[in-house]
Amino acid sequence: MGQQIHWFPGHMNKAFNEVENKVKLVDVVIELLDARAPFSSINENLEKVIQNKKKLIVLTKIDLADQNATKEWVEALKKKYDSILTLDLKNNGAETILSKAVIALGKDKWAKEMAKGMKPQPIRAMIIGIPNVGKSSLINRIAKRKAAGVQNKPGFTRGEQWIKVNKDFLLLDTPGILPMNYENQKKAAHLALIGAIREEILPNETLGEMLLEYLKNQYPSALKDRFDIETVGDRLTVLNQIAERRKLVDSVGQNDLLRAEALLLKEFKDGLLGKITLEKYGA
Ligand SMILES: Nc1nc2c(ncn2[C@@H]2O[C@H](COP(=O)(O)OP(=O)(O)OP(=O)(O)O)[C@@H](O)[C@H]2O)c(=O)[nH]1
Ligand SMILES: [Mg+2]
Predict the structure, then answer these.
(1) For residue 41, is pLDDT > 80?
(2) Hey, whose CA ends up nearest to atom 4 of ligand 1?
(3) Furthest CA-CA distance within the chain
(4) Structural domain boundaries of the chain?
(5) Number of H helices and number of E strands within the chain?
(6) Residue 199's pLDDT is what?
(7) At 188, which helix (H) or strand (E)?
(8) Ligand 2 is a single-atom ion; what residues have CB below 5 A from it?
(9) 171 - beta bridge partners?
(10) 131 lines ligand 1 (CB under 6 A)
């Protein structure tokens, strides 16, 4: 393929430094990972920065992911991180579940405070994650009907707004956006397929090829169910079939394969091809 992935060290460092600074303010870091590509959405570089913080991993968009694959990811991630949750933001219980997990991770801090004769202080947490992973959705969900920030109390950095989730749990109201893993093309492609990379760092042709190859091997019925394609042939054959089924015709009356490919990618991203996970644990 040979495409070069553009790398912007300046931007990356700036985004990373911002997260690094904010992490200093909290006890618990909540990192969101897209359940369709957990491996590519995790930022390994951050591990060094947050060594002494508790880490809670939340798999998001589980409604779009393959349930069995998600279960396997949860089991695997449990071994590596302090706590793992899957959150369905359409479910009312999300706030309570998150709160319980955060407070459980803060118990050590409380023990230390009490040992020093202090009154246990609320656990402070922040949400981090790559673009489009659901950070704002989760914060909005939690912030709903909550009192305004508590920034006027001593000990809080000016300009930082905290959402008082309950008496034991304060959440920083702005998430940390993590730079993405561009270090290899496969990860970048997965991030583009799930919509975490907006710029066209990889051409649709490359993404279409990868997606079709993956579906053929892992989810052969997805194209049948959506586009009535019985056997998955090569990319151009499939694109022609999609163009025909959806009546996508270009200005000279030919099947419009560019639009067919864009449509395929969009429908995958929107979950219309079914519940599909691009990365299986251990695969
Ligand atoms: N299907 C589904 N969509 C979700 C879920 N959570 C968030 N979304 C959608 O994903 C998109 C991105 O969500 P945001 O909450 O804006 O993500 P973000 O991490 O704040 O994104 P940036 O601010 O761009 O970094 C929105 O269209 C949400 O509606 C989920 O659990 N399932
Ligand atoms: Mg956001």
Answers:
(1) yes
(2) 61
(3) 80
(4) 9-177, 203-269
(5) 11, 7
(6) 63
(7) helix 185-194
(8) 135-136
(9) 125, 163
(10) yes
Residue 173: pLDDT band by 50, 70, 90 thresholds?
confident
Q: What is the rounded CA–CA span in Å between residue 69 and residue 191?
A: 17
Give residue 39 CA to ligand 1 midpoint distance, Å.
18
- The helix/strand/coil state of 163 is strand
pLDDT over 50 at 221, yes or no: yes
In the predicted model, is pLDDT for residue 152 greater than 90? Answer: no
CA 276 to chain centre: 14
Q: What is the 188 CA–ligand 1 centroid distance (Å)?
A: 19
* Mean pLDDT score, 243-257: 97
Residues comprising the chain, all counted = 283
Domain 203-269, architecture per CATH:
Orthogonal Bundle (1.10)
Reply yes or no on domain 9-177 having CATH 3.30.1360.120: no
pTM (2 decimals)?
Answer: 0.91
